[in-house]
Amino acid sequence: MRFITKVSIFISATGLTLSLLSNFGFSAPAQPDCAELKRGVVKIVVTKNGNELETGTGIVVGIDGNIALIVTALHVVTFQKDGRFTTAERTHVVFYDKPYVKFKGSVFDKYDPALDMAVIVVSPEQGRKIPSDLPSFTLGDISALVEGNNVTTIGHPLDYEWEVQIENNTVVGLSALQDHRKFRFTKVGVERGHSGGPVFNGQSQLIGMITERHPSHTIAVKMNEVLSLLKEWRILTSKVISPPPVAQLTAPKAPTDLKAALTGNKEVRLGWADNADNESGFKVMRRVGGESQFREYRTVGKNQNLFVDKDADRPGTDYQYMIQAFNDAGKSLPSNMASVKIPLTRPEAPADLRAQAVGPTEVKLAWKDTADNERGIRIERRAGTEGAFRVIDTLGPNQESFFDKRVRPGAKYEYRVRAFNEGGESAYSRTALVRMANPTWATASGFLAMVKAGKQFVDDISGLKICGSTRSLDYLRESTGVKDFTPIVIAGGEAYMALQRGVCEALVVYMDDPKKLYEIYNKLKLNEVAPHLILLP
Predict the structure, then answer these.
(1) CA-CA distance, 225 to 419, in Å (whole number)?
(2) pLDDT score for 134
(3) Cβ burial, residue 459 (10 Å; 0-12/13-18/19+)
(4) Cα–Cα distance between 32 and 38 in angstroms, integer?
């Protein structure tokens, strides 16, 4: 008889992953080699009413020593009458390697009429051996089939000798059946006797078993449904069928073409190409500013290729990213690196500037810091209310007060402040005006009397010979900024003599010592000496 291989397929859209159980191994996917695959396919011969009938084909799915397990279509090994199935009087199988030897088989006592599936167990008589080194089948995923794929069937048409004719065909269309356990393909060269035979995809992987032949199409049952029934019937736990192999999981392929774009004030949008088909998810790796290493920042699910970082909140800082796919087997190599720099924005202007004299030679400034990104604060001042402001000091960030100790009694000053960073300077705060008080003799009543008598207080001390203690002369120089007066250091008891001799043109004293002030006053009054007087607060 002739052994024919041909077909085009219509297959259901139902997803399917098959695992054929066989204790003689699983072959790796390869191009169809029907000359080898046919050795795992048998011809089935049954006896009815004393007559031998060649009825169909079977698939060897398990070998244990000299025992073979074969699946076939139910109608190949039974006859139906009045809705009941009756097995044939005898069942034999013929292997391709031994075309003239008939091996006795027994139909398993469980079968599935709806799926049209039966099982034959071959246990040869003593002295006979089934062929050795039968091929194993690699199972394929029929859900991966699309129009244009090459497919092949192997069957045993009736009334032909053993002969193989290989015809490669092409999937011409896909369609679903009401019974999702089956699929349909166009009838190209499928003849009587193909029932129970295998269907292979273009990589020689087993995807189904033929059960029906119609004028326009052929129907096959999915191999995962066949295996599911074998397991249900507990055949899978016998010595005939070994456990299924466990596919080795490998790390996913690395993402590529990572791009980063700034989409908001603090948002970075990432996009990449997902090249893996077995990832559990993706890890977003991030490095900020001067960090030395990338850190795992976020995790997203499988089949994703977008992520938005909403925490890129450091102006002027580089944010760098890489993406890694992962699964239980490990991580992929990282993607290319993509980076963005968060632009700097000018800080907000300080608010509510206030100026207060805290003495005749010191001013306190206070304001509200409204910025969160400044690098510092600049203090500007001008004398009076006209003329140019100039910077008198620069403070660090987050400051809200400043003491100006370089002011003169009786003078008027106007201030303003502004924040700055690498992005520029803020607007100015409002201005604040302060007038410094003149030194007062309110605590020394005797000197008030002296002032009323025409004694004069000194505003301009340039060029004068000024007597006083070291402390008072240093303070006078520091507080006024005037350097060109002549300081003459005297002790407290020498003041009167120095004034009387004309050594000093002015006397500088602290007004916080009334006893000393009255002493000097009395001596001056008694001797009618009238020097210039400088009182320090």
Answers:
(1) 75
(2) 81
(3) exposed
(4) 11
State the pLDDT at residue 510: 63
Residue with tokens 């099982």: 119
How far is residue 537's CA from residue 531's CA, in Å, rounded to a whole number? 19
Which structure tokens are listed for 274?
A: 């997902």
SS3 content of the chain, % helix, strand, coil (to 5): 10, 40, 50
Structure confidence at residue 29 (pLDDT): 37
Q: Which residue in this structure is represented by tokens 């079977």?
A: 58
- What span, in angstroms and rounded, lies between the C-alpha atoms of 385 and 21? 98
Structure-block tokens of residue 71: 């699946």
Burial of 162 (0-12, 13-18, 19+ CB in 10 A): middle
Structural domains in the chain, CATH included, are 3-228 (2.40.10.120), 256-341 (2.60.40.10), 351-435 (2.60.40.10), 445-536 (3.40.50)
Q: What is the pLDDT of residues 105-114, one digit of tens each?
A: 888 888 888 8
* Secondary structure (DSSP) of 36-62: HHGGGEEEEEEEETTEEEEEEEEEEEE
Is 50 exceeded by the pLDDT of residue 528? no
Buried b (16+ CB within 10 A) or exposed e, 224-234: bbbbebbeebe
Our separate counts of H helices and E strands in the chain read 7, 37
CA angle 302, 306, 310 (to 5 degrees): 120
* Local structure of 84: helix, strand or coil: strand
User: Among candidates 170, 176, 149, which has minimal Cα distance to 11?
Assistant: 176
Percent of the residues in the chain that have a pLDDT greater than 90, as a whole number:
25
Using 50, 70 and 90 to split pLDDT, how confident is the model at 28? very low
For residue 324, the tally of other CB atoms under 10 A from its CB is: 23
Quick count: other Cβ atoms within 10 Å of Cβ 511? 19
CA atoms within 13 A on the CB side of 459: 4
pLDDT in tens, 144-184: 777 667 778 888 877 666 554 455 555 545 555 667 788 77
Q: Is 469 exposed, middle or buried (0-12, 13-18, 19+ CB in 10 A)?
A: middle
**Measured over all CA atoms, what is the biggest interatomic distance in the chain, rounded to whole angstroms?**
165
- Cα atoms in the Cβ-side hemisphere of radius 13 Å centred on 48: 13
Tell me what pLDDT residue 400 has: 95
Whole-model pTM: value is 0.43
**535 within 8 A of 361, measured Cβ to Cβ:** no
409-445 tens-digit pLDDT: 778 999 999 999 888 899 999 999 998 876 443 333 3
Res 255 pLDDT > 90 = yes
> Do you know the residue count of the chain?
537
Q: How many whole angstroms from its chain centre is CA 245?
A: 34
Q: Using CA atoms, how far apart are residues 136 and 119, in angstroms rounded to an integer?
A: 18
pLDDT in tens, 34-80: 667 888 888 888 888 888 777 788 998 888 778 888 999 988 888 87
Residue 271 near residue 319 (C-beta atoms within 8 A): no
